[in-house]
Every structure is written in C-alpha cells, then in structure tokens.
Amino acid sequence: MQTFGAFLVTLLAASGELASAMPSSMQQPRGSTPPTGGVQVKVRPRTATTYKHPALAMAKAIKKFNATMPAHIAAIVEKHNAAVANLAGRATSGSAVTTPETYDEAYITNIAVGTPPQTLPMDFDTGSSDLWVFSSETPTSSVNGQTLYEITKSTTAKQMTGATWQISYGDGSSSSGNVYTDVVTIGNISVTSQAVESATTVSSEFTSDSQSSGLVGLAMSSLNTVSPTAQKTFFDNAKSQLGSALFTADLKHDVAGTYTFGAIDSTAYTGTIAYANLYNVSTSYSGYWTFQSTGYTVGNGTTTTTATASTATTSSGSGKKNNQEAAQQGDAAQQGDAAQGGGPGGFFKRVRSLFSGHQEEVRAPEPKNRKHIGARDAEEEEVSDFQKRATTTTITGIADTGTTLLMLPDAVVTDYYSQVTGAEDSTQEGGWVFPCSTTPPDFSFAVGSGSFTVPGSYINWTPVDTTNTTCYGGMQSDSSIGLSIFGDIALKAGYVVFDGAEGRVGWAQKTLTT
C-alpha cells in the first residue's frame, strides 16, 4: 500500500459505448511519466458501436438529478429505444448498419475489488457519492454484458447487516441493493473496508451501458445513500494515504486521460490554476463540488445577458460556511433526503424549492487563497482583458464528471447560440442544434480571479443522425434541472482540481487534443 503519495489513474476516453475487453493488469503503461510517487492504470479508448441520439445525454442529466423529464425529451428517449431494438433485429438478420460516433459521452477506468482482486470498469462521478456495482446479485434481466462483482469469490467481502442503498430518479425508476465492505484498489491505493453497494435493482439507463460496471462517486460523503448510516466515499477513506487531500481530472477529447489523486501534475497544464471556493446557498451545497462563476464571454466580444433564476443569486442560504467544512462530511445536511428521494435527486428537489421561494442575493465568500501557480504578468493582463469584456452574470453550478454536457442558464445559452449561424432550439432534437459545418465561437467563464475557455469546436459536439448535417450542441439549457452543470464538455478542455483540503475547485488551460 502506498502511503503519503500521489497516484495517477489513466482514464479511458470512450465515445459512447466503452471497451468490452478491459485489461486486468493494473501495471503502469510504457512511456508514462506520472508525478513523483504516482502510478498509472493501463486503459485504452474505443469508439461507439451503437447509435445513441445525443439528446440522451440531456435525458441522463435530467434523470440523474431527479428532475421532471420534458415530454419532447421523453419522446426522443422512447423513439431511440425503439430504434435500438430495430437495429438489433437487423443485425441478427445480417444487415450492416453504419452509425455516427457519440463523442466523449463517458470516461471509464478500471478499479480492483475484492480478494483476489476483480477488475471492474467504472465511471468516476464527481456528481454522486455511492460506489455501486453490477454484481452476482443483479438480476440477469438487468445485465447486458457488464463485468460483475462476484461477491462469493471474494474472501474479504462482508455484508453490512441491515444496510441498503437506493438512488431514485425523476422518472420514478431507481437503482438499489445491498451493501458489503471489501478491499477496493485504485492505482496502488487500497481501502480495506470500503462500502461496495451491490445492485439488486438497476435503472434501464445503466443496463443499456454494457461497458460500465457501475459508478465510483467522488462528491462529498454526505450525499451517500446507504441507510441507516451513510458511508464514506473512496476518496474520503483514502485521504490519510495521500500527500494532499485533493484529486485532479485531466479528461481529453477522444483519447485517454488521467485522474491524479494526492498531487497536482505541473506538466499537465499551461499557465496558472484559477480557483473558486466551494459555494453554499444552504448547508446542502456541501455535498457537491459547487462553485460560482461571476462572468462570461462569447468569442472575443462582450455580452449583455443576465442569467436566469437557475443561478444561485436567488437563494436564502447564508453562503458563509467555512470552505473546508463544505468539502468534508456535512452529514447533517442530508437529513430529510429520504422523503425527497435518495442521491443527487433529493438534494436538487430542495434546491429548486429554495430558488422558487426567495429573492435575496447571496454572495460567495472571498477566496482564502488567490495565489496562482507560476503566474506571469502577461497572464494577469489577459485575465484583466477578460474581466473588461465579460458580463457580471453569476452562474452557480457543479463540476460533474458524470454529466456529459455543459448545462447553463437559458439566458446564457440563448446568448451564446445567437452568435452561432443557423442555430435553433429544436423540440424535435431535444435541444440546441446547428449545421455541423458551423464553427461555434469559444465560451469563456470566470473562475475566481481568473478565467477559463471552452473551445467552440468542443461545443460542436456530435451529429444527431447518420447524415452528419445537423449537430447537437455541447452547451444546453439547465432549465429542467435548476442548477448549472459543468460537465465533460467543459472539463475535457482543461485541467481541473478538486481540492478537498482547501474547499475549492481549480481550473487551468492545457494543450488540447483535436
């Protein structure tokens, strides 16, 4: 077991469906140079093998946060499911089907569970706090090629008597099951008594993703749904083994990326890291990697739009909670979640009720530490130029590796697409679309005293069909959820620090893959 060291986990950057033949070896790949004391987990990327309408990414986010699914989105999901069934029949009869790729929909890495270790491909999710898996207890009707955690084959698996877990979704479905403790290893860091949640019921959304065996939740432990006692996340349990209580996400476009736990890799980014403190409109916000952006620009121009009520400027919370406390347990904040629905959904129901009933403005606390690593005068001038061009719009959202899209307030999204030739908010396609030949402008947003840019090429996300004529935007409205989500479209454009010790989120630019 590594002590007081950073370890590096290399992710699979998958387009839609993910690799079926995941390597069992946890060895460091050749040619890699992890931070001092780090170790890399070998993975490989793979493109999509089945067509998935891009609006399903919107549906997934809405469902994840227990929001009401708009009828036109639900219709697209139903149509997609029927089309998939039809394609399966055609494949059986020998017909060949050409399908477009779904770009960077999810990022997967291997973890090891049990003794002897069983390798499972998992989705790292900073928007939830449960480590749950497809297992030998999962009904065969809910298994679609996933690698299973074979409980009886692990000599260290122990069932937690009376413990259960359940994550409820906005469409009435849920994932739930029993709870065990077992050895979980990521990289070369092992937690000997990690809560491993075995699925006995699985939402169809997860069944359809044959390449992922479950989720590793990396939000705060206060959001964990295990009852009667919430359990700690892997990150919280591993903190004592890390040099620093932080982890970073270095997701990339269409190629392998990395997570680093315990250290910042100074070679992975350019310029400076801009930090924003974790933000709380109520004690409930301690559960997420929530931060405030205080301005944005579209391309090189200025904008005049003001954000809608989906930002956190209309909350009754004090916003004064200490940042370190916000990054720790906050278990008391989760009391009453059972009545609202477990997991992220119950939290967001409370947030939406806050937004609808109060109008006083709450300001984020001043950052404790405005230091930027390797700051240079030219970069400070660039930030100043951004501040001159940017709006003063406040956008409150969470950094969520488990959501694909960049989901922002209606007014911000409308302002952005007003500058994209041919863009329209399409009911038929379930969101903003535009000609694939269009080059959208960059989108920049403020982070602390700095700024961060998402290239327009990333917002030109994926075609809506096989003709490659109309593309679905990587930026969409958050109106169905009520809180902005900085998902993979934004995250893969930078190097992102999730700092549990200081209670903050950091963003830095990096050399991008095309």
TrEMBL record:
Gene3D superfamilies documented for this protein: Acid Proteases (2.40.70.10)
Domain Peptidase A1: start-end pairs: 107-508
Keyword Protease: yes
Active-site annotation: D125, D400
Sequence ranges of Low complexity compositional bias: 309-338
Key word Hydrolase present: yes
An example Gene Ontology molecular-function term: aspartic-type endopeptidase activity
BP-aspect Gene Ontology terms: proteolysis
PROSITE patterns attached to this UniProt entry: ASP_PROTEASE, PEPTIDASE_A1
Domain of life, per lineage: Eukaryota
Keywords assigned by UniProt, alphabetized: Aspartyl protease, Hydrolase, Protease, Signal
Family the UniProt entry places it in: Belongs to the peptidase A1 family.
Protein name (Swiss-Prot/TrEMBL): Peptidase A1 domain-containing protein
Organism name: Gnomoniopsis smithogilvyi
